[in-house]
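Subgroup meeting minutes
Present: P.N., E.W., G.H.
Scribe: E.W.

1. P.N. recapped why we're keeping a running log of single-chain structure predictions: easier to compare across weeks, and new members can see raw inputs and outputs side by side.
2. G.H. added today's entry (150 aa).
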Amino acid sequence: MNGVELFLLGRTLMKIGEEALPTEGIGRHSTSVRTVLIVVGDVRAHPGSAVGEIATRTGLPQSAVSAAVARLREVGAVVTESDPRDRRRLLIRPAPETSDRVEQVRAAPIDTTLAAALGTDDPQRVAEIVALLDELARHLTPQALARLRS
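Output recorded in log:
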C-alpha cells in the first residue's frame, strides 16, 4: 500500500462511517456530519478552545465550526462559556454528562453498512473485517497524528 492508497482507504472508511451513523430525528442542518465529528474530536482533544482556535487546527471555516458547535450544544455534546479574559469569545468543552443522542451515536453498529459496502451478507466475513478495523483503531489513535508532527 502506498500513501495514495492509504488516503483513499481512509476516505472510503470515513464515508462508510458517516453512512452508519443514525440520523433519524435530527432534521436538516447546514453542517455535515463530517464537520460535526471533526469539531467534536477537536473539542475532546483541546477542551476550553475558542471557535477560531478550532478552525485553525481543523482547517474548517470559522462559520462551519460555529454551526457545528451550535449543533453539538443542541444535542448536549458540548457546553460553552464566555472566556473570562474576553467576553466576546466562547470557550467550548465536552459536556460533563453524556447525552442520550451521543450515547445513541456511539452505540450505532456498523455491521449492516459495512456488509453493504463489502457487497456481502456473510456475517463471518463482516465480523473479520470489523475485527481488523478494531485492531487498526487500537493502534492508530488520534495521538498517532501528534507523533507524525514531532
